[in-house]
C-alpha cells in the first residue's frame, strides 16, 4: 500500500494560513506602508519594498532577485499601478523560487527502499529537532511502518528524555545509552536493533554543536561509517532541522551544516510563533537542497509538506 504524505487539502491550507499569520501580518503591513498615498510604482516604492522584504527575513540575495525583476517590469510597462503590486510581488517571488528543488509528495511506503530506511536528523540544540523526529515517527507509524528511534544526542540529557517521552507516547521502541556515551555507538546499536526487529525505518537523533564545526564533521562522519557496517548505503536521508524564528541565523546554520555533512533535505520549524517566516523563501532560494517539511504548530499534523506555491499564496492571502 502506498501512503502518500498529504498535499494541500483544505485542512492543510488552514493550518498553513494560521501558522503564517504573524509573518503575513508584518509583511503585508510593511508593503501597505510602502505604497500608502501613491498610485504608481516608482523608485521610492521599490526602495521601501526592498526594506520590507529584507526586514521580513526574505534575505538580501532573494530580495534583490525579486526587486530586479519588478524593476524590469516597471521599465517595460512604464505605468505600473500600486494596486497591482501585491499580485506582481507574489508572481515574482514564485518565479525566484522556480529553480529551487521541491519535494512534491511524501511517500511513507518504504517497501521499495532497503530495510530499514535510515534517517539521520541533524541540527543545533533548541531548533525543535527532537519534536520533529517525534512527529515524523508518528506519521510513519500511522502509515503502517515499524519504527525504531535512536537517541544519539548523548551530550544533552534533555534530548534523550524528550525522545523517550515521544517513544512512549507513540509506542515505538527507542535505543539509548547513558549520557556522555559515544553517539556513533548509539547509532550503530539503533541500526542493529532496527534490523533485528525487521523495522521499516530507523530515525536517529544527533547532537549539533556548531561551535566546533570540525568536531561536528568528525562525529557525523563516524556515525555514517559505523552504520554503514550494518547497511552499506545508509544513511538514506540526512534531514537538517532549522528554527524559522531565528530568521537569518537559520540560513547561516544551514550553510554551516551543509559544509559539515551531506544534508539531503530540510525541515523549518516554529513558523507559527514568529514574524520571520520569510526566511523559508531565502533558504529555498539560496540552498540547492529541498525544504521538505515546515512546522506551523504543536500538533503532529502541523508538520506539513512544504509547497512553494501554497506557501507564497498563504503569505499574500488577506485575513477574512
Write the layout of secondary structure elements.
Layout: H1 10-19, H2 21-35, H3 43-55, H4 60-77, H5 85-96, E1 117-122, H6 129-142, E2 147-152, H7 157-170, E3 174-175, H8 183-196, E4 201-206, H9 213-228, E5 237-243, H10 248-260, E6 265-269, H11 279-286, E7 291-295, E8 303-305, H12 308-316
Parallel strand pairs: 1-4, 1-5, 2-3, 2-4, 5-6, 6-7
Antiparallel strand pairs: 7-8
Helix pairs in contact: 2-3, 3-4, 4-5, 4-11, 5-12, 6-7, 8-9
List keywords for this structure.
8-stranded mixed beta sheet, 320 residues, 12% strand, single chain, disordered N terminus, 12 helices, alpha/beta
Would you write up a description of this structure?
This protein has 12 helices and 8 strands. It has 320 residues and is an alpha/beta fold. Helix 3 (43-55) runs antiparallel to helix 4. Strands 3-2-4-1-5-6-7-8 form an 8-stranded mixed sheet, sandwiched between helices. The longest helix has 18 residues, at 60-77.
Task: Quote the distance from N terminus to C terminus.
Answer: 39 Å
Rg value? 21 Å
Order of helices and strands: HHHHHEHEHEHEHEHEHEEH
Mean pLDDT: 88
Oligomer: single chain
Please state the structural category: alpha/beta
Low-confidence stretches: 1-6
Counted beta strands? 8
| Strand order, sheet with most strands | 3-2-4-1-5-6-7-8
Instruction: Categorize the overall geometry.
Output: elongated
Strand content: 5-15%
Largest sheet: 8 strands, mixed
Provide a count of the helices: 12
Helix residue percentage = 40-55%
